[in-house]
Amino acid sequence: MQPYEMSLAAAAQAIRQRRLSPVELTDSVLARLEQVEPRLQAFVTVTAQRARRAARRAEREIAAGRYRGPLHGIPMGLKDLIDVAGEATTASSRVRAGHRAASDSTVHARLTAAGAVLVGKTHTHEFAYGLTTPQTRNALFPDRIAGGSSGGSAVAVAAGAATFALGTDTGGSIRVPAALNGTVGLKPTYGLVLRHGVTSLSWSLDHVGPLTRTVEDAGLVLSALTGHDPRDPASLPPNAEPDARGLRIGVPRTYYFDRVDPDVEAAVRRAIAHLEELGAHLVDVDIPMTRYIQATQWGLMVPEATAYHERTLRAVPDLYQADVRVLLEAGELMPAGDYLRAQRARTLMRQEWARMLADVDVVAAPTVPLTAVPAGQESVTWADGTAESVSDAYVRLSAPANITGVPALTVPVGHDRAGLPIGMQLLGRPLAEAVLLRVGHAYERTRPVRTAAPCSGSPR
User: Fold this and answer.
1) Sorted alphabetically, which InterPro entries does this protein's record hold (predicted)?
2) What is the Cα–Cα distance from 402 to 200, expressed in whole angstroms?
3) Among this protein's residues, is 149 annotated catalytic?
4) Which residue(s) pair with 100 in the sheet?
5) What strands lie across the sheet with 184-187, from one edge to the other?
6) Alpha-carbon gap, residue 283 to 151, rounded angstroms
């Protein structure tokens, strides 16, 4: 195994035991990045010199006995909505040409304090306003979409071009690309991870969280982001028992298995059955207020995004990509009453979800209703004849966690008949990330899904 293939936890252990140096790991990741980047286009900016300086500094500190913890010397990518002092934050948009961040975002400052090494800024769908990240290719099947809007972060991790990465999630933008590229993605509880210095799409829906290779890795990154110490329950002990004994797993009777690809449904139901084998109790649940989910998501996101972009939309509208400009202009036409009704619906939805989650510890469901579609495909037609845009399909199962603010974790649980990754989504009570990580870790330890990183060459 090459260093770039190692999980964060494995690399951290090797660094701590002096079997691997941060310089060796960073050089391996940068070499991998150079190999795959021409084909995958995961990065806006590669900060190779900065990374090598940070890796040498980490090596000296560790040699001197100043080990900062499991992220010390670990290469990371940051979605290019996240400010790094002195670097561009382009949001993958011509609107931000020439931009340089004056100061660090809170999340970058915390990861830097933990000793992480920045290898580059990753692509997003322009200003995070989309579910495909069109400029980036899927890490496993480059003729398929990467998913979005944190597509660059998911692809970088899946391809070995970063040991972990950060993304943002407004309607599924961490979980969707994680599921489509076979990685782990965690959207924490709303407000748990501070967003200062992160370009907003919709301030009442935005979240920042990690994309990693394993659930254990996600817990390690979350601990650094939240500023907690090793006693943080979000950090999994290295020898955690792979079981879910005594936990109540909610299995949706409504919504989450409607209009879902048969391969996706079969894989997720097998995974849920395996959780029962690990000691969980399965409980049927009904998802509340499902008819209002799409209207509430759009009713909140569209006007908030338009308000954020108001000045630049009027000054330089032609610099936006057409799909994003249309959505921003549509927001100018939405009445204030629609936004207020969406806020009221969100309040009611949070109350109903709290009642549902009082009866279960975790809800298990598909992350997305279908695997990665071919690049350029704009719609999907379901067996009942219903047609749906690809973006609407991908956001449909992830949006409830953004509206309600509950934490959600996606874990790889298999592949469809074409070999494309399938993700299972675990949703829990606010601030109960530890429970999601426990369940995901239990599944992962006993049903590992390993997806080969791409090799160099032409797309499949």
Assistant:
1) Amidase, Amidase_CS, Amidase_dom, AS_sf
2) 14
3) yes
4) none
5) 43-46, 117-122, 75-79, 164-169, 207-212, 184-187, 408-415, 421-428, 362-366, 248-252, 281-285
6) 34
Which residue in the list 21, 28, 93, 149 is annotated as catalytic?
A: 149
CATH class of 3-295+323-446: alpha beta
Could you say which of 21, 92, 105, 173 is catalytic? Answer: 173
Half-sphere exposure of 271 (CA within 13 A, CB side): 34
Reference 249, options 285, 219, 221; nearest CA is 285
Q: State how far the alpha carbon of 176 is from the alpha carbons of 49, 73, 98, 169, 446, in Å.
A: 31, 28, 30, 9, 23
Residue found under tokens 């954020």: 308
- pLDDT tens-digit readout, 207-216: 999 999 999 9
Q: What is the DSSP string of 116-150?
A: -EEEEEEP-SGGG--SS-TTSB-SS-TTBB--SSS
Q: Are 147 and 131 in contact (CB under 8 A)?
A: yes
**Span 132-159, mean pLDDT?**
97
Reply yes or no on whether the pLDDT at 201 is more than 60: yes
d(CA 144, CA 410): 20
DSSP classification of residue 413: E
Which member of 21, 79, 150, 153 is catalytic?
A: 79
Helix axes 293-308, 336-357, angle to 10 degrees: 130
Q: Which pLDDT value is given to residue 241?
A: 62
Phi, psi of 314 (to 5 degrees): -80, -30
Does pLDDT of 238 surpass 80? no
Is 200 catalytic? The answer is no
Mark whether 173 is an active-site residue: yes
Alpha-carbon distance of 197 to 104, in angstroms, equals 7
